[in-house]
Write a structure and sequence with these properties.
This protein has three domains: about 210 residues, 3-Layer(aba) Sandwich (Rossmann fold), CATH 3.40.50.1100; about 80 residues, Rossmann fold; about 70 residues, Arc Repressor Mutant, subunit A, CATH 1.10.10. The protein is about 40% helix and about 15% strand. The protein has 16 helices and 15 strands. Strand 7, helix 4 and strand 8 form a beta-alpha-beta unit. Helix 2 packs across helix 5, helix 5 packs across helix 7 and helix 7 packs across helix 9. The chain is globular, with a radius of gyration of 23 Å. The protein binds zinc ion (ZN).
Length: about 450
């Protein structure tokens, strides 16, 4: 069993606790060769104890793992699929898949006498570490990566975690989303999927923030292939929200935009820590990566809630949104065995739920679409004139992008078009007018 730095190739026996590469600060992954697959009679993820790094003396658990794999009937029919399974990770103790990794990390930290945790993270990771660190009487200090869902902040505080504005004094164990021990916990998702005996899994769809979850799922399947439990890796599909999709864009060789905040804030990570590993994992399985927009994510939340009774946070619904796109494109067949990951619980973000209920349109107040609508509110005009007006206002945008925005807006019913003197003229609808009013 050895650590391997994914960046510089540093290799070292797993005899101590390393969060990052001691030479270059890169991501460490723990690799091992396992002779055969056999499980132990222990609850949750600990059933797979022999495939974890042997650095713990005691097990500290809150009951993570062994989450239900829901065989969908209603959503399956809606999409006209033969088989659709939903891995419901919202059922973990703190409401996200992260608990799987935290249980291992905490158990190992106890045997090394870790005195405190310092966490730089988005909500779910900080909430999980804050909850579990109590098991070993260690406090968690979190510097939050904003924005954070309210529910997650309340979780952190009620579990007894502390929010700090700067790095705490040493010694501490630093927790990052890329942590090698977290990966070891997340990989149990693949183990469980295979143990659920649903036949060969053809495709699995995974939301990506740091890319750690997707990489871990790949690692789990890879180990199962090496142990001859399964013959092939399923095709893995990664999904991000289009406003902040650096991994997807990099995968497709596109320019990475700065990274805005969308609705799926848990995965709106402009600097994904395991980007390279996630890309390699998807390539290795002949999968693909897709972007979904906020409206598609909201549709995914509604579908999961109404058809399956699973209330997920936006990050967790990205996989359903992606499923629709992949089916439309023919990348996933209707008769395949498909698994979608429902990663985190919806009640963590009450503000988001309210936004959805009040008809959130996914447009920021100063977004390009809103600006286009405002221009059309003054006067109906040809796309070229819209472009000219925007340029006068100091916006840099291509003419092609204007057409794209106008087509989107027309599809959503905010503008309409007619031909006048052989030219297409766009004008604002009453729906468009009320949208502008609501964003003022
Ligand atoms: Zn290194």
């Amino acid at each position: 069993m050895y650590y391997l730095c994914e960046d510089c190739g540093f290799k070292h026996n797993v005899d101590g606790m390393l969060a990052r590469c001691p030479y270059c600060g890169g991501n460490l992954t723990i690799y091992n060769e396992f002779p055969e697959f056999s499980v132990e009679n222990l609850p949750g993820i600990w059933r797979y104890r022999r495939y974890f790094p042997k650095l713990f003396k005691n097990i500290f658990s809150l009951g993570e793992g062994r989450t239900p794999l829901i065989r969908s009937f209603r959503l399956k029919s809606y999409f006209k699929l033969k088989n659709l399974f939903i891995k419901d990770e919202t059922r973990n103790p703190t409401g996200s898949f992260i608990d799987r990794g935290t249980s291992i990390l905490i158990s190992i930290a106890e045997s090394f006498g870790v005195k405190r945790f310092y966490c730089e993270a988005r909500g779910n990771l900080a909430a999980s570490i804050s909850a579990y660190s109590n098991l070993i009487k260690v406090k968690t200090y979190t510097r939050l990566i904003e924005p954070i869902d309210r529910g997650k902040l309340y979780q952190i505080l009620l579990y007894g975690g502390e929010i700090v504005s700067d790095v705490v004094a040493k010694p501490f164990y630093p927790v990052f989303p890329t942590d090698p021990f977290l990966v070891e916990g997340y990989k149990t998702i693949s183990y469980e999927l295979v143990e659920d005996h649903i036949g060969r899994i053809d495709a699995i769809i995974v939301p990506m923030g740091s890319g750690s979850l997707l990489f871990s799922i790949w690692k789990g399947f890879k180990e199962l292939v090496e142990m001859n439990v399964i013959d092939n890796l399923p095709r893995i599909y990664g999904v991000q929200e289009s406003v902040c999709a650096p991994i997807v864009r990099s995968f497709h060789g596109k320019r990475i935009s700065k990274g805005h905040r969308g609705i799926a804030i848990e995965i709106n990570d402009p600097n994904p820590g395991r980007m390279k590993e996630a890309i390699n994992a998807v390539k290795d399985t002949n999968g693909d990566m897709v972007e979904v927009n906020s409206m598609q994510i909201i549709e995914g939340i509604k579908l999961l809630a109404r058809f399956e009774g699973i209330l997920v946070e936006p990050a967790g619904a990205a996989s359903i949104a992606a499923l629709k796109i992949l089916l439309d494109r023919g990348e996933i067949d209707f008769d395949e065995n498909i698994v979608v990951m429902a990663t985190g619980a919806g009640l963590k973000g009450p503000k988001t739920l309210l936004k959805i209920l009040s008809g959130y349109k996914g447009f920021r107040r100063n977004s390009m679409k809103i600006n286009i609508l405002k221009i059309l509110a003054d006067k109906s005009m040809h796309p070229y004139s819209v472009w000219k007006k925007l340029s006068e206002k100091g916006f840099t945008i291509s003419k092609t992008a204007i057409y794209q925005h106008l087509n989107d807006l027309e599809r959503l019913g905010y503008v309409s078009s007619k031909f006048s003197d052989g030219r297409k003229i766009f004008y604002l609808t009453s729906k468009g007018l009320s949208l502008i009013k609501s964003t003022k």
